[in-house]
Design a protein that fits this description.
alpha+beta, Uridine Diphospho-n-acetylenolpyruvylglucosamine Reductase, domain 2, Uridine Diphospho-n-acetylenolpyruvylglucosamine Reductase, domain 3, Enolase-like, domain 1, 3 domains, 5-stranded antiparallel beta sheet, 4-stranded antiparallel beta sheet, 14 strands, 34% helix, globular, binds flavin-adenine dinucleotide
Length: 293
């Protein structure tokens, strides 16, 4: 690893000052689980690392009228175990529980994972399916970015120089919806998914699909929203035939990279299979009663 100077600021103003001063030579660090590996591999070589851990007010989870606001420094473990997230966003609690091992989840933060932009990570598909957005803060103020627009390319995210991701706002899933996150893990339990899918599906009283959001991970250079499949379901009866036809459209949306987890063809097939299963399981989780029947 190259030599670097570590800075430990206690306020965002100090962070912005350091980012201003050192420009492209500086990188912020949250949990360090991705950045330290990238520095050891010399993929990034900052001369100045700006730790965020001592900056106040970035690690709280609160329930608001717009949804749950999660501070960027909240660890994956904190989110998985939060009573607020468990009560209001069960899809998210389940998703974070499926990340790696407790050792990683105790260190890795929601903000660090999002800015890292690895298309194999678990949280982005679930967060996009829920319609989450991120707040980017700089010395000039706040900028809100829909997570759907955050991921630009492989490990490339829409974070501008001088910006820090400070919080993530996650709306609750719509009333009368069911949601699920599936991680296809044929190798080991702590691996990244070969294919992952988050689905949120809601149903009209007459049994037709009111809305569907289907987002896949590990099948392209960014998370992939399967909009054609969603359009094919919306307004249609949620029959096996319609679900199969919609899931088949997922194949056109994905463009997986071949790696040791499988060929691009295999992952494309699995994307269809797991999208179908995710929609089926989400429908099973739609609450019974007037809102969901
Ligand atoms: C062994 C191992 C297994 C893993 N398995 C999984 C898995 O199964 N599923 C999964 O989803 N992930 C997995 N991960 C990835 C892990 O989730 C990421 O490494 C983690 O989310 C990164 O978060 P961090 O807080 O450690 O980020 P850091 O390493 O601190 O930072 C990552 C990047 O984000 C930038 N950054 C950090 N915080 C901010 C901020 N607030 N604002 C602006 N920029 C910021 C940094 O400059 C850096 O570029 C695994 C990692 C390891 C090491």
């Amino acid at each position: 690893m190259i030599d670097f100077e570590y800075h430990n600021p206690t306020s965002l103003d100090e962070v912005f000052g350091l980012l201003d001063q050192y420009g492209e030579d500086a990188r912020v660090m949250a949990g360090g689980t991705a950045l330290v590996i990238q520095m050891k591999q010399r993929l990034v070589q900052p001369s100045h690392v700006v730790g965020l851990r001592r900056v106040g007010n970035l690690n709280t989870i609160e329930s608001t009228s717009e949804g749950v606001r999660i501070g960027a420094l909240c660890t994956q473990r904190q989110i998985e175990n939060s009573p607020i997230v468990g009560g209001e966003l069960p899809l998210l609690a389940d998703t974070f529980r499926k990340v790696a091992t407790p050792r990683i989840r105790n260190m890795a933060t929601i903000g660090g994972g999002l800015v890292n932009g690895d298309p194999n990570q678990d949280p982005p598909p679930a967060l996009i399916a829920l319609g989450a957005s991120a707040v980017m803060t700089s010395k000039d103020g706040d900028r809100v970015v829909s997570l759907e627009d955050l991921f630009i390319d492989y490990y490339e995210t829409d974070v501008q120089p001088g910006e820090v991701l400070t919080s993530v706002l996650v709306p609750q899933a719509p009333a009368g919806s069911g949601s699920v996150y599936l991680k296809f893990l044929p190798r080991t339990a702590d691996d990244y998914g070969t294919v992952t899918v988050a689905a949120v599906v809601s149903r009209e009283q007459d049994g037709t699909c009111k809305d569907a959001r289907i987002v896949l991970g590990s099948v392209g250079v960014t998370p992939v929203r399967a909009t054609q499949a969603e359009d094919a379901l919306r307004g249609k009866p949620l029959t096996d035939e319609n679900i199969r036809a919609a899931a088949a459209l997922v194949k056109d949306a994905v463009d997986p990279l071949e790696d040791f987890r499988g060929s691009a063809e295999y992952k494309t097939e699995m994307a269809e299979v797991f999208a179908r299963r995710a929609v089926e399981q989400a429908i099973e989780l739609i609450p019974s009663g007037p809102a969901g029947s």
